[in-house]
Amino acid sequence: MTLSPDQISKLGEIGQEITSSLDLETVLTKVHSSVQEFMPADIFGIAVYRPEEGDIEFQYYLENGEFEYLSSAHLSMNDSLSAYCIQHQKEVWFNDLDAEEYDKYVFALRAEETKAQSQVYVPLIVKNRPLGLITVQSYNKNAYSMLLVGVLRTIASYAAVAMDNLNAYSGLATAMAEMEVLNSSLQDMNQRMKKINSDISTLSAMGQKITSTLDFETIMTSVTRSVGELMDADIIGIGVYREKEKEVDYQYFIEFGKLSYRPPTNVTAPNHQSEDAFVVATLKRRKEIVMNDVRNECKQYAPNIIPSFGEIHSIIYFPLLAKNKIVGVLTVQSKRAHAYTDYQIDMLRTIASYTSTAIDNIHAYSYLATAFAETESARTEIAQLNSHLVELNNEKNEFLGIVAHDLKNPLSNIKMLSKILNEESKTLSPEEIQEFSSDILTASARMFDLITNLLDVNAIERGGIRIINRPFDIKTICSTVVANYMARAEAKNIRLVIEFADGDIQAIGDPSAATQVFENLLSNAVKYSPFDKSIFVRLQVHDITIRIEIQDQGPGLSGDDMKKLFGKFARLSAQPTGGEHSTGLGLSIVKKMVEAMHGNVWCESTVGEGANFIWTMPRSTEL
């Protein structure tokens, strides 16, 4: 299963709300309600990692909707999933407590962590630093699928950014307090506070805008504008890491206010002598590189570099990391030496965190969109297959019903007549025996015709009949078939009027199939024509086609008849006029064979004025 487009959009809105708040209670409450929208959460908790104490403290923990106290878990504990999650910076996920699925993480569990069958722990990590964790638990087994864990992972990334913002805000607030003590000038202190507040607002608005969109160009434009508002940025570049190619692709690079091109950086190439060496170094260290005097400081990060920095004197490179995975690089550069203070570097660190989350969201959305499209395609294909299966099943049921009906009567007649011949043969006259034998032969012929037609349809549909198209004398075949049907026509006092073009007429097709098609069409004309009428059989030669017409003076065909005329088991309103039998398969066989010979067949008819079946096939010009 995958998320719907509405759910994906909802995740983006959740990220915007979580990361745009600097109030801890608001953040915790929003994270909790967001998780509840997507998955069961009988137990929910958010813990903060305290490096100084070496433990994890749950500041927000609910069981069955009630706030509960949960004792801290020290990292040295070997029976705590919370401790394992932070210590290893890995997710913990299992769906069957009774089956001891937790034993791949710890050998035993402390009592506080044995209340739920299904449990998930996701670490909150920003810039490769664990800030805490989120846990969601259910009393039911198999509560959390891979998709739900993926959703929790996304919400956790938002929570991590929000908590990092709170820490940054706390640090900025501390700085404000210290400045209040150190600065004797109230006016100077107020100006600094305004600047800090303005920067915090800028950061918050930027984080909201960057992390709430899935459009790459919008993200890049927002980052560039925001960095330019906070610090000197004569050069700003954002590169996306391509795992498969092992390179950083700079999709957005601004030099002195103009969009520029920077070739991709191959991160596996040894001994870079250009600025690419800084890219490799920052990704390898997974830590920012800050040089406020690049000509004197570059060698400590890139020993083999050949300094060539033009007007640039200050350079910063930040690795973009999301869930401890490299997603790209951010660089900011200035013509001024010592352009960047620690305060500005902290601000840029937060911007890098926002950018990392936004790029990772785009990757996740792309994956989900692809999976959704593939699922929709598969669902459509399955629906089509199901529809075809329903059609085949209906056809099978119709086939069985028709076969049972059409075989039952002749079999009953054969059984009855055979019984009479067997039991009363000594008392029957030769004329009666002849009559009964003739009836048995007629009934057998009916069954034989039905079975032959069914076998023909099956053979055609599975490709069992080979149609070999070649030049042949269609006039001879038509003349032979007409002669064979003359007796049947005379039995109903029907005149067969022959209107054949003069000379040898060569068509392209399969002679055997053409014979069967002509026999079917002529047989139907005789079968449905009233007594004392005429049937016109025409054979005409055109430039590239041969046209054959068989026109009767029967009852004609209705509009409904015309729609199902060439379908299998078609039952039409017209009935045979001499007690003849029809399987409803003949015209279906005709159409398939004609098309296999690259011809066309159709009918022109008006109710009460007879029917004219027209069959065209390619003409041969060979002599």
Regions with pLDDT < 50 over 5+ consecutive residues? none
Quick check: average pLDDT? 82
Terminal residue distance: 66 Å
**Beta content:** 15-25%
Number of β-strand runs = 21
Radius of gyration: 43 Å
* Portion of residues within helices: 40-55%
Structural class: alpha+beta
Task: Give the assembly state of these chains.
Answer: single chain
Major sheet size, sense and barrel closure: 7 strands, antiparallel
Please state the overall shape, judged from the principal axes of the Cα atoms.
elongated
Number of alpha- plus pi-helical segments: 14
Task: Spell out the key features of this protein.
alpha+beta; 21% strand; 7-stranded antiparallel β-sheet; single chain; 623 residues; 48% helix; 21 strands; 14 helices
Describe this structure in words.
Helix content is 48%, strand content 21%. Strands 1, 2, 3, 4, 5, 6 and 7 form a 7-stranded antiparallel sheet that branches. The chain has helices at 5-19, 24-38, 81-88, 146-182, 186-211, 216-230, 276-285, 294-297, 342-424, 430-461, 474-491, 511-528, 559-563, 586-596; strands at 43-50, 55-63, 66-67, 73-74, 92-94, 118-126, 129-138, 235-242, 247-255, 258-259, 265-266, 289-291, 314-322, 325-334, 470-473, 495-500, 506-509, 534-541, 545-551, 600-605, 611-618. The chain starts with a helix and ends in a 5-residue tail after the last strand. It is of the alpha+beta class and 623 residues long. It has 14 helices and 21 strands. The mean pLDDT is 82. Helix 1 (5-19) runs parallel beside helix 4. The chain is elongated and about 130 Å long. Strand 20 and strand 21 form a beta hairpin.
